[in-house]
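hi got a favour to ask and not much time before my train. below you get a single protein, a line of residues and a line of whole numbers that encode the local backbone shape. could you go over both lines and see whether the tokens make sense for that sequence. a few lines back from you is plenty, here it is:
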Amino acid sequence: APASAGLADRHGRRATDLRLSVIDKCNLRCTYCMPAAGLPWLPAAQLMSPAEIVRIVGVGVGELGVTELRLTGGEPLVRGDLEEILAAVRAAHPRLPVSMTTNAIGLASRAQALAAAGLDRINVSLDSLDAETFKALARRDRLGDVLAGAEAAAAAGLSPVKINAVLMAGVNDHEAADLLAWALRRGFALRFIEQMPLDADHGWRREEMVTAAQVRDRLSQRFRLDPHPGQRAGAPAELWEVRPPAGGPVLGTVGVIASVTEPFCAACTRTRITAEGRIRSCLFSHEETDLLSLLRAGASDAQLAELWRAAMWAKPAAHGMDHPGLDSPDYVQPERSMSAIGG
């Protein structure tokens, strides 16, 4: 890998968006992510400490051209020292945009402290506004906590609050327009995400997923969607302006992330670090590079950067879900689930 090119790969892309998982544990058991009984959690000693997280972020920003940080999990709020992590990152990088993806359980009581510690923005996972449907999907009766967390995030200035929703055929796909109407009323930015083959049970089936085209069709039954005029660049979501059915003023926007049916690999700008400090060049990678062990062995920042650079240089051109992709027996789902990877 060229030493002067940051986190470049052989296909002309450069990763500037760091997705860093702070923990693999989660307090929900969403059907498209985890088995009902949960997963074996990493021992605490294997997780990155606050100081190690700050060091790795510093290498990314100072040596490799990282310009944005997203904290993920598991569920980041499960870490009691999350505010400490944020404060340390913010002290080291005062102008670095820092966001977080969360299920919002416990967020209502921590949103203000997280904002004070340096968090800029938040993404809340919410798949249903119906308590029973939420319980069926998440295997926990916590809808009220999630809604309260989203409102608290907005009140704390963690805006725009983005809502991530996954539609499941025959379960919550009829709620697409209701979710959008609710998000528009609350001033939240809704993003629909195609269900990806990253469930721990490996029960994903292409023919059972709700596609991006189907999402747009469901929304168009109640709203008019017009392509957003802004440049998408490397953003995963394709944005649409939302108007009343007969036209009129823009009510807001909605995004659709079509990782499976309309992949955007050619414009990917992401690099990932798992909760135990391993580099993943792609969400669907089968290979990981152990950065944390090298750090703990006393490596310099330059040595850490060299390893990270080499891991990203080997990034594949695409995730393998393009044609023939998942219709082909050659496609193999990653062994690790979303919660163990970091979103």
Remarks:
- Residues 7-341 form a domain with the TIM Barrel fold (CATH 3.20.20.70).
- The radius of gyration is 19 Å.
- The CA atoms of residues 31 and 136 lie 8 Å apart.
